[in-house]
Amino acid sequence: LLESMIFYESSDLVIGNSIWLNDKDEKLYECNIPKGVFRKNEILPQYLYSAAFNVPWGKLFKSNVIATHNIRYNSSMRVAEDLHFVYQYLLHIDCIQTVTGLLHNSNLVHHVPGNFVGKYSMTTTEAAQHYSFVWMTYKQINIRCEVFEEKFLMDIFELCKRNAHKNPSPWYENEAVKEAYRLRANAKGGLSR
Q: Are residues 124 and 155 in contact, defined by beta-carbon separation less than 8 angstroms?
């Protein structure tokens, strides 16, 4: 798969097939983006919050883009730092190539640990901070993805949910979180928080 990706070095970002497995080697997710060359405004509205864009592995990045824009992992993040890195990279590119491997249906395999929520449980303060980092970068991409707006909010909240009753204020008073809840409510025709 990696060998086949090298042929597309003219693209700003090359994404290969991937499959995510649980502890029992059962398939959880598969990269299901159509294969081809896309401008980011063509592909991100539907696929930004998918297995293809949530992680840095299984991709070829241009090192000059990373160096020129000083794109780095946020070392203060315990979760979603990889997603944040990819989103920062997306700010500075336009052409995305999705490919399959040289062998029919060859995939990179990623193992997903069983108790993700238990492993990454955090306080409402930590969760709100992590959410803010990614939300601000998402907004800078300036391409709306309703799946991201719906699922990322709930995915991060899931990590602090068991601690939310102790101190809910940092989560619900965070500006990025409030903005996301308002967008969700408006999209559903409901009331905002």
A: no
pLDDT beyond 90 at 120: no
Give Cα separations from 17 to 29, 30, 57, 60, 131 (angstroms): 11, 8, 11, 12, 27
Backbone angles phi, psi at 15, to 5 degrees: -120, 125
Q: Which residues of 24-47 are buried (b: 16+ CB within 10 A; e: fewer)?
A: eeeeeeebebeeeebebeebbeeb
- How far apart, in whole angstroms, are the C-alpha atoms of residue 147 and residue 141? 15
Distance CA 177, CA 77 (A): 17
Read off the amino acid at residue 21: L
pLDDT (tens digit, 9 = 90+) per residue, 57-90? 888 999 999 999 999 999 999 999 999 999 999 9
Which tokens go with 191?
A: 């009331």
Cα–Cα distance measured from residue 83 to residue 78, given in angstroms and rounded to the nearest whole number:
12
pTM of the model: 0.88
Instruction: Read off the DSSP letter of residue 88.
Output: H
